[in-house]
Amino acid sequence: MYLESLKIYGFKSFAKKTKFLFNDGITSIVGPNGCGKSNIVDAIRWVLGEQKAGTIRSERMEDVIFNGTKTVKPLGMAEVSLTIQNTKNVLPIEYSEVVITRRLFRSSESQYLLNNSPCRLKDIQDLFMDTGMGPDAYSIIELSMVETILNGKPEERRRIFEEAAGVTKYKQRRKAAFRKLEATAGDILRLNDIISEVEKNVGSLSRQVKRAQRYQEIKEQLQKDEIKLSAHQFSKIKIELEPLIDKLNESQDNRVALTTKFDEQEAEIEEARTKLLALERKLSAQQKELNEVSLKIHKKEEDILVGRERRKALEAAKVRLLKENEEISVRVEKNKTEILQSKEELQYLFEQIQLAENDYQETSAELNSFEMRVHDKYEQLKKIENQRLLAVEGLTESKQEEERIKTQLENLDERIKSISRQLEESQLLEKIREDKIAKLQEKKTSQESELTKLNQELKDVRDELTTLGKSKEKVKERILNKNGEAQALKERIALLKKFIESYEDHPEGVQHLLLHGYLNGGCKGTLAENLTVEPTYRRAVETAMGEAAVSLIVDASDQALECIEILKADEKGAVTFFPLDKFSTQRIKSDLRPQNNDILQAHGVIDWAHNLVQCEEEYRTIVQSLLRDFLIVEDLQTAKQHADKLQENRINLITLNGEVVSNWGPIKGGANGESEAGVIGRKAFVEELESKLKETWTQLEKEGKEQQEIESKYQKAFSSEQDLDKQVKATELKLTDFGVELAQLNFESRKDSEICERLATEDESHKKNQKSLTDKMQRVSPSLSNLVENKAQYEAALQQASGELESLEQEIKEYRTVEQDSRVKLAGLKSEERHLQGNIVKLHEFERELTGSYKRIDEEITAAAKEYAELESKIEQNKTAIETDFDEHKILEAEVHKLEQTFLEKKEELTNKEKFVKAVRDEKDIVSETLHSMELQVSELKMSAEQIKARIKEEYGLTTKKGALEEDFDEEGIAERIHQQKNRLDSMGPVNLLALKEYEKEKSRLDFLQTQKNDLMEAQTNLNETIQVINKTAREQFSKTFEEIRKNFVKVFQSFFENGQANLKLAPDEDPLEAEIVIEAATKSKRPTALTLLSGGEKALTAISILFAIYLVKPSPFCILDEVDAPLDDTNIGRFVEALRTFSKDTQFLIVTHNKLTMRAADSLYGVTMEEEGISKIVSVSFKEMDLEQSPKAA
Fold it and tell me: Which of 848, 882, 963, 1002 has its Cβ near the most Cβ atoms within 10 Å?
C-alpha cells in the first residue's frame, strides 16, 4: 500500500489545479522559504480529516481557501484528493484503489467523498483508525512535533503510542460504553423521579376514591328530591295550561271571522285598483302622443335657428380663405429663388472636394509603400531572433543534459548497491513471517466458526424477545379494556338493582304499598314484573301498556279496596289494581272483537301486541284486555301506510321505537325517553348483564394467566440474550485481535514480495540505464562548441537589422503627419456638402406643402358655396311643417283633459274603500296581538314543562308524566333541601368520579416503571462488565506493543549515538492505559537523564528514534516528514539518511527539506516555487534533476 497521487485545487497557495505523482521509496520536496512546501503536508493532513484549524496553520478553517493576489481573484472553494493504492487491503475496504476527497466552500459548507461517493467525516476517520495513517497519527511528523513528542502534553505523546498499539478503537468503544453508562445512570435517575411522582399519585388517588364514594351518596339523595320536585312542578304546569288553551281557541275563532271579512273587502279594492290602472295607462298614452308632437315642433324650430347661424359662418369663411390664397402665392415665388441659390453653391463644393480627394490618395499611396518596407524589416528581425533563441535553448539543454547525466550515473551506482542489501534482508524476514501466519490463520478459523454459531443463537433469542414483547403489549391492552368493561357492567347492574328494589321510577302509591308490606300474601307484584317480552319488542309493548305496566295485581277486589283506603289515609296518591277474580277468561274473550289477521301478512307488520307477551295463564286476560287494540309494526312509515286499511274501530299501530299511529286520527311520537331497561323485562335485562359480567371476569382470569406465562418466557429469553451477547463480544474481540495481527503479517509479507520483485526489476533497469547514460555522455560534449559559435553569428545579424529598422520608422512618421492633414481637409468639405444638400431637400418639401395648401383652400371655398344653398332650402321646408304640427297639437290637448277628469273621480272612490278596509285591519290586529300574548304564555308554560322533562331525562334517564297534585306537598322545603345538598356537593370541590379507574391505571404504571428500573440496573451492570473486558484487552495489547517499541527505541537510538543510552517508561502505580510515558536519553555513555539537557539536534534524533522504533513494530505504509532534519548537522544527517533508506523498504517517505544530503538520498524530487507572487507551482524531477551544490530552488 502506498500514496499514488495528490490533487490540490484552491488550497492555500495552490490556486491552480496541481497534481503530485508519488513513487515508492523516498520523495523530497524542496524550494525556498515561503514558497508553499509545507502547504502540501497540510493538504494531506486536511484531506485525512483534520478538524483543528491551528494544526494546519490557520485561524479559521475557511482560511485554507485561496484568498487571491493582486492579479488573481480569490476562489470560492478548496479541494484536495488523495489516491491510495490499497493492494494489500490494509484499509478495511474492498477497493484496491481508494480516493479520498475533501471540499470546503466559503459558505462553511463541507463535503467528504470516498471513491467519488459522498460520505461522512466519521467514515474517513473509521477507515484510518489504528492504521497509523490518520491526520494526527505518527505517519505525519513536523519539526514542531519533535518538541511535542519529547516535552509536550502527556496525552499528545500517548496518542502516537496508542495508534501504534492499535488500541484507539478500544478506547473509542470504551468511550461509547461510558456514554451509554452515563445515559443509563441518567435514565435511572429520571426513572426514580417518575416513580416517586407516580407513588404520590397512587396515594392521592386512593384518598380520592373514598371522597368520590361520599360524593356519590349525596348525589343519589339529591337525585330523588329533584325527581320528586320536578314531577310536582310538571303536573302544576299541566293543570294551569288547560283553561288557558280553551281561551286561546276562542280567540283564534274570532280572528278567523275578521280575517274572512278583511279578505272580501281586499278583493273589491283590488278590482277597483285594476280599473283605475287601465284608465291611468290610457291617459299616459295620450299624454305621450301630445308630448311627441310638441317635441317635433320644438326640434324644427331649433333646426331653423341652427341653419341661419351656419349660413353666417360660411360667408365669413369664404372671405378668410380668399385672403390665405393670396399669401401662399407670394411665399411660393420666394422659395423658388432660394432653391436656385443653394444649387449654385453646391456645384462649387463638388469641384473643391474632387481636388482634395486626389491629394489624399497620392499621400496614402506613398505611406503604404513605406509601411510595407517596415513590415518586411520586422519579419527579418523576428526570424533572426527566433534563430538566436533556438541556439541559446539548444546550448542550455546540452549543458543541463551533461550535468544531468553525471548526476544520474552517480545515483544509479548508489541505488544498485542499496538494492542488493535490501534483497538479502527481505528473504530472511519472509521465512519467519510465514510460520507466524500459518499459526494465526488456524486460530482465526476456529474463532470465526464459534462466532457464527453464537450470532445465530443470539439472533434467534432476539427474534423471540421481539415477538414476546409485542405479545406482552397486546395482552396488557386487552386486560385494560376488559377491566373497563367489567367496571361499567358492575355500575350498570347496581343501578338497575337499586331501581328494582326501591321501585324509584314507580308511582308513589305503588312504592308505599310494596315497601311497607301492606300487600303480604295477596299481591302478585306489578304487572311488568310478571311479564316476559323479547328485548326487541319491550319498548313497543311498554309504550302500549303505558302506566298500566306499573299497576298492581291482587287476588281479589276486596284487597284492592283495602289498599285504596290505605292510600287515602296516608295521602300517597292513586294506584291501579288488577283483581284476578274480576278477569275471567270467558269474560275477556266475549269482549274481544274479531281481529283482522290478514294484515299480519303485510310487509313491515310484526304481530298483535298481546301475542308477543309471555306470562302465566292467570295473567293472560289482563294482557289481552290492555293490548287488544295494539298492532306492532317495524317503523313509522309502515304504521302510516297501514293505518287507513284497518276497518276496526280505534286500532293503534305501534313501532319498535314506541311511536303510535291510530287509524282513528291521533299520532304519537318524537324523542323516545325510555331507556333500554324499562319496567318490563328489567329483571331479565339484569340477568343478561350479570351473565355478561361473569363472562368478562372469566376472560380476565384467562388473560392474566397468559400474561404471566409470556412474562416468564420473556425474562428467560432476556437472560439468554445477555449471556449470548457477552460471549459474542468476547469472541469478536479475540477475532479482531487475530484479524489485525494476521492482516499486519499478510501486509508485511505482500509488501516484501512486491518490494523484492520491484527491486530485482529495478536493479536490471538501473544497469541498462547506466550503460545507456555512459554512451550518451560521449555524444553530448562535441556538440557544445558548435552551439556557442552559432549563437554569436545570430547576435551580430540581429544588431544590424535593428539599426536599419530604426531609420525606416523615422521616415514613416513624417509621411503619416502629411496624410492626416489631407484626410482632415477632405472630411470638412464633405460635411459642408451634406449640409447644402439637406437644405435643398427641405426647400423642395416646403414648396410641395404650399402647393397642397393652395389646392385645399380652393376645395373648401367650393364646398362652402354648396352647403350655403342647401341650408336655404332646408329652412323653408321646416317652416311649412311647423304649421301642420300646431293643428294636431290642439286636438290631442282636448282629449287628454277629458281623461284626467274621469281618472280623478275613480281615484276618490278607491280612497273611500281603503279607509273602510283599514278599520277592519286594525280590529283584526288587536285580536291578533291578544292571541299572540296568549300563545306566548302557553308556549312559555309548555317550554317550562318540556325543560323539566328534558332535564330529568338528561340527568337521570327518566320520563316525567302528569299526575294529581298533592295538597300538602312541601315544595319550598324540598327545594331548600335540594339547595343544601347542592351546597354540600359544591363545598366538596372538584371530585374525581373516575378515581378508581385512574387508581388502577396508575398502580399498573407504577409496576411497569419498577420493572423498567430493574432492566436499567441490569443494563448498567452489563456495561460495567463490558468496560472491564475492553480495559483488559486494550491494557494487554498496549503493554505488549509498548515493550516492543521500548526495545526498538534503545536499538535505534544507539545506532544514531554510539554508546548512547535511552529508555521508555510508564509512570509507576498508574493504569497503563492512562499512565504518562517517560522518555529518557543520553549520549556518550552517560546514564539516561532529562531530555532538556540534550541539544536541538540530539532532541530531533531522539524523536526520530521513537518514530522509527514504532515503525519497526507497526510500519505505516507512508510517512511524511516536514523539515525534521533542520536541526541536524552533517554527521547526524548521514545517520538519518541511512535510517530512511533502511525503512523505505516498507514505508513510502515524503520529506520536506532544505538539506542537500537528504535531497541526495531521495529517489524523486519535487521543486516548489512562486513564479507568480502568492501562487505555488511545482516541477517534478526524477533522480535529482537539480544542482545540489546551489541553494535549493525550484527547477
Answer: 1002
